[in-house]
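Re-run with default settings, no changes from the original entry. Doing this only to confirm the output is reproducible before filing.
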Amino acid sequence: MILTSNPKKNYFSYKKELDNAIQSVLNNGKYVLGKNVRLFEKEFSKYIQSKYCVSVASGTDAIILGLLALGIKKGDEIITTNFTANATVTAICSVGAIPKTIDIDENFFHLDENKIKDQINKNTKAIIAVHLYGQSCNIFEIKKIARKYNLKLIEDCSQAHGAEYKNIKLGNFGDLGTFSFYPTKNISAIGDAGAVTTNNKSIYNKLILLREYGWKKRYYSSQFGTNSRLDEIQASILRVKLKKNKNEIKKRVKIATKYNREIINPLIKIPKIRKESTHVFHLFVITINPKLRNRLVNYMKKKNIICLIQYPYTINEQKFFKKIIKKNNFQISSKISRSVMSLPIYPELKIKEQNKVIKLLNEFKN
C-alpha cells in the first residue's frame, strides 16, 4: 500500500537517533518543560529566523493561545479562509471570537486578499492567513491590509515549515506564526505538538504565561492560563526531526518536480507555485473535474494507492460552522473542495512507487 504520507517510515529512517533521544529523556526523569523543550524552542526559533518561540501541546493550541496573547476576546471578528483545516476556525471559536471566512483564489487556493477589505468592519480585530499545502499565501498584500486597518495578523504555518516568501521564512510576517507538528507534518512529532513564533517580546511573555496556568511563579496564577505544555519526549523527537528538515525538503521538491514533469494526463492539473515563494510540498495536490475526482480516488485505491482529499468540505458547508459563518460568495472554495486530491509525497517514497502512481494517473480516462 502506497500512502499519501507515511509517519511510520519516517520513524524508521531515524529510528536509532529517535530511540536514543527518547531513552535519554526517560533516563533523565525530567518530563515536562525541561532541557529538550528549552533547546527545541531555541533551535526552532533560529530555524524560522524569529526572535522567540514558545512550544505548546498542539497546532490548534498554538492558534488559540496566539489569539489570546493578541487580546482577542468574545465577539471579536476574525477574518480567515473558507478553505482550510477545521483547526483554524475551531481555534477562533474556542476564544469566543467569530470567524468570518472569505473565498479563495483559484490559482493557489489561498485566502483571496482582494476580498478582505469588503469584509472589514468595526468588530474586525485580526486576520489569520493560512499558508496552505506548503507555500505562502500573498502575505505581503495581506500584511498591508492588516496595517492599514490596524488589524492583528496571525500566520497559520502548520503546512509550511521552512517555506519562504521573498527570501523571508514564513512565520515572520505577522504578529505571530503558528505551527503544528502533527505526525504527518514536514517536521513531525509522534503525537500532538505545536509552537508559536514571534518577534515581539511582549507577545512572547504573554504566551509563556498562557501555556502554564498564568504562572509567573509556581502555584501562583497572575492571570488566566491553561495547560498546553510540550512534553520532553516530543521535544526530543522534534529536535532530531528539525535537523533533518532541510534535506527532507529537498527530497519532497525532487518528488514534486518528477510529478510536474511526468504527469501528462490532460484531465489533471498540477499545482502552481507562487512567484517569489518556495514550496516545501507538505502536500502535492492535483485538481480534476469534480465529476471525475471520486472515481479517480477509488481507481487509485483499488491499485493500493491512497490519495487523500484535503479538504472535502469547505468551512461553511459543515453543520457546526453553518450556524456561525455568515453567508458569502464561496463559489471558488466550493469548486476546489470537489476537485482536489493529494498524491503520495514523503521523503521515503521510492522511485518505483512514484512511477506506479504516475503511470496509473496517466492511464486514467474519462
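The longest strand covers residues 124-130. The chain has a mean pLDDT of 97.
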